[in-house]
Amino acid sequence: MSTHYLPAYIARSMSPTNHWFIVVGAALVLMVGCGETGVGPKDELPVLSNPETSFNDRDRSFYAAVTVTLPESATVIDSVWIEMFQIVGGTSIDSAAADTFLLSISLVDDATNGDILPLDGVYARTFDSPLPSGTGGAVRFEFHALIAGDTHTAADTLRLINLRPVILSVSAAALLTLPPQGSELVAIDTVRATVADPDGLNDIKRVGFTVLKPDSTMANNGQPFLLADNGLLEPYGDLVAGDGVYSLIIQLESTNDRGTYVYRFTAQDLSGAVSDTVTQIVVVQ
Q1: Which domain holds residue 178?
Q2: Please, which residues bridge with residue 61 across strands?
């Protein structure tokens, strides 16, 4: 309601006639004021709002959520789902024509599958990543809701940055035979680890492996043996520089312990993030 100030002379001593004039005048002012509230019709909320996406690179899972508000003309939500795309050549959601479709999955509001609270209007889901290990770049999510025959849409883009490196594979001889006792010969093996990093191979700081010996002690005082991706055959045995395959030549003398060795490989990026550990068993006889 608009605010109108009464004339200053209302505070004066007034005769009965003046009282009648002021009452009628005030009534007219109130009638005019009530006719102009200054408040327009309530703005209708968007059907889909607050889209949210995240990625957990520890368990390689995505989380997606969106708030769904029913239009005034509807009473039931038929379905809510997302479509996921890998963005090709950038991070813009305007490049949809070049994006690669990855999956379509429903969202729920029943406190299951990653949804937190039931019936709170937030539809969500946690799901395994459809991307290959070590994939970076960006992904685009399209949120859809089917309500009373109409489809409503919202979008969100998630940049996959500063993710942990991934060890794709390792190779080492499963069985090594030591030379005879007292021999100056050595047993030679080339150990390799193929590594990827979502932020590029330039983000990898080091790749190495620790060795648990048959007597349950750690070789090299527990420090990792470092592999290299520098293309040097000596002393690393690396074939191609910068291809993501890290290598190291190891030598075992006749005096080394016989038994089962456990190699544990890890990769670390420049931010300090460490990959999952990959284990390789080597038997020395």
Answers
A1: 166-284
A2: 56, 128
Q: 134: pLDDT confidence band, cut at 50, 70 and 90?
A: confident
The answer on 80 and 16 residing in a single domain is: no
What long-range pairs does 221-225 form, CB within 8 A, spacing at least 24?
Answer: 224/266, 225/191, 225/250
Asked whether residue 95 falls in the same domain as residue 187, the answer is no
Confidence check: pLDDT of 196 > 60: yes
Assigned token pair, 213: 């010996």
Q: What is the spatial distance between Cα 55 and Cα 274, in angstroms, rounded to a whole number? A: 17
Same domain, 268 and 170: yes
- Residue 144 and residue 68: Cα distance in Å, rounded? 10
pLDDT score of 162: 84
- Can you give the pTM of this predicted structure? 0.68
